[in-house]
Design brief:
Blueprint lengths: L1 H13 L3 E2 L5 H8 L6 E4 L8 H10 L6 E5 L4 H9 L4 E4 L4 H14 L14 E4 L5
Parallel strand pairs: 1-5, 2-3, 2-5, 3-4
Length: 133
């Protein structure tokens, strides 16, 4: 829902992340394909283009931006499908804010966007995209 999208964006901003977001998959894809983000936060179930399709299209275009799936799809099959599609991590809703932030740090650390100590090396921009029922 829209409230969750804005809450996640606010949480990330409070942690000094720069945040852009889109409410529809197609809009998110248009932002993400530019490849200017340090990390993307995607949901699988989106209006318009779904998160898996977004990720597959980005990887096919050679966009290497790390992706963290944040979704209600909690089956092992869904998680494997997301990771095999090229996601760097996968977090299931409902989630603890502390875990979301820790996983974001891990993804950014693995990609070299954040130092081992957790200090930001660049101003990461994260694109959370929300899920609709």
């Amino acid at each position: 829902d829209r409230n969750l999208l804005h809450a996640i964006a606010d949480i990330l901003r409070e942690e000094a992340y720069q945040v852009d977001y889109a409410e529809k998959g197609d809009e998110g894809y248009l932002l993400a394909e530019r490849g200017i983000y340090d990390m993307l936060v995607l949901d699988i179930m989106l209006p318009g283009m779904d998160g898996l399709s977004i990720l597959k299209k980005l990887r096919a275009k050679g966009v290497p931006t790390p992706v963290l799936f944040l979704t209600a799809k909690d089956s092992v099959e869904a998680r494997v499908k997301g990771l095999d599609a090229g996601a760097n991590d996968y977090l299931v809703k409902p989630f603890a804010v502390e875990e979301l932030l820790a996983r974001a740090r891990v993804v950014l650390r693995r990609s070299g966007k954040i130092a081992k100590e957790g200090d930001l090396q660049y101003g990461p921009i994260i694109l959370p995209v929300q899920e609709y029922d």
